[in-house]
Backbone:
């Protein structure tokens, strides 16, 4: 331990009960609360973003490939599924592919009539991400020999039609000739996103193939999940250049632009908020070191008189500020991570799904963000410590010893 650090530790113990002691406690609380708020804010923001994105991806993945059609209808011309899979399989950025098809229908019960979109899915390529949205009943039971009669209704559609798992419903398909199918409600899903919950019913793609008289090799389109969503734009451009001329590619960020714009707006607001928090914590640290220097002016004068250099005295206050910073960060992490853990495991803070798309405050654990926040707090606090210590070089020993 060098002399500056030794004197800093002695000052720390000698300040107990003084005005400086109160100020240092405020500095520690400021750093702790600032860091805790930043950790919680980013955990909640990332939780919101991931929850909403996962709900959107469960319906449309990252990319959708379908037949180019100028009428912009939900029902599109079929494409060859096996050939498209073969074209996409060689791309290292493609993680998985799921075929789909859509068909408009009218659901009629004894009491209600409602227009919906039946979306057919197939789990031969892997489990559907829609499973994560199931809130009641069971998922569709697929068969290799026949199309399943099971369907999933959203909570909103089920409430409007007064249907529950196990009930049967008649679907009327407007085509030539008109068709009627009776389906069994196997489960209820809920995403909280009105774009999906108010319109879509999930079923077996085999039913749509039968209604449209398609062979098993045809699908309405292909949903493509990428390995890295952050590379969506360049990968989409690359895939589009290699697609056949009669196919189109839609990015999920374009299909639901309003939701992704809202998420971007949240990011900007949180960044501005966090900059203000860091500024306040930094200002408090600067004020604290200034007060320490003023209260120790006599001691600074004595140290200079016996030969201590400005750098040695500056180091003394630097170590003091470093000690306050480390303590503040320790309590900040304890408070922030503790709050996140309680919310993550016990969910004490609920949300209204009608307004927030989910029923509780979400928490996402990202070690990289936590490390970056700690590093940013540590560096800005140390910078705040260094700024007032340069006042020491202006203090004259004779004047400082007489200072009261």
Residues:
């Amino acid at each position: 331990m060098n002399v500056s650090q030794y004197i800093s530790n002695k000052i720390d113990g000698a300040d107990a009960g003084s005005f400086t002691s109160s100020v240092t406690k405020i500095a520690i609380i400021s750093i702790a609360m600032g860091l805790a708020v930043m950790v919680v804010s980013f955990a909640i923001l990332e939780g919101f973003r991931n929850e909403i994105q996962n709900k959107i991806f469960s319906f449309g993945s990252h990319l959708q490939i379908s037949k180019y059609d100028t009428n912009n209808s939900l029902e599109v011309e079929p494409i060859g599924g096996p050939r498209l899979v073969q074209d996409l399989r060689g791309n290292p950025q493609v993680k998985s592919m799921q075929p789909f098809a859509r068909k408009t229908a009218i659901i009629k019960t004894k009491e209600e009539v409602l227009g919906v979109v039946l979306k057919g899915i197939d789990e031969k390529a892997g489990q559907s991400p829609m499973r994560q949205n199931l809130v009641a009943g069971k998922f569709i039971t697929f068969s290799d020999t026949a199309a399943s009669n099971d369907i999933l209704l959203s909570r909103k559609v089920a409430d409007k039609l007064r249907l529950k798992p196990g009930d049967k419903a008649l679907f009327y398909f407007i085509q030539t000739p008109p068709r009627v199918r009776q389906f069994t409600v196997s489960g209820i899903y809920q995403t909280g996103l009105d774009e999906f919950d108010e319109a879509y019913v999930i079923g077996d793609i085999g039913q749509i193939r039968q209604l449209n008289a398609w062979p098993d090799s045809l699908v309405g389109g292909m949903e493509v999940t990428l390995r890295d969503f952050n590379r969506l734009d360049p990968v989409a451009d690359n895939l589009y250049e290699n697609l056949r001329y009669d196919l189109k590619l839609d990015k999920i960020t374009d299909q639901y632009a309003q939701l992704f714009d809202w998420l971007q707006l949240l990011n900007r607001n949180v960044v501005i908020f966090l900059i203000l928090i860091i500024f306040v914590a930094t200002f408090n640290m600067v004020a604290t070191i200034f007060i320490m220097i003023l209260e120790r002016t006599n001691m600074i004068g004595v140290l200079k008189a016996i030969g201590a250099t400005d750098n040695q005295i500056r180091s003394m206050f630097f170590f003091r500020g470093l000690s306050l910073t480390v303590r503040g960060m320790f309590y900040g992490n304890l408070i922030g991570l503790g709050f996140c853990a309680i919310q993550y495991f016990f969910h004490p803070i609920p949300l209204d799904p009608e307004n927030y798309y989910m029923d509780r405050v979400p928490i996402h654990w990202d070690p990289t963000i936590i490390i970056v926040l700690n590093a940013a707090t540590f560096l800005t606090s140390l910078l705040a410590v260094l700024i007032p210590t340069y006042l020491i070089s202006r203090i004259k020993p004779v004047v400082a010893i007489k200072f009261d």
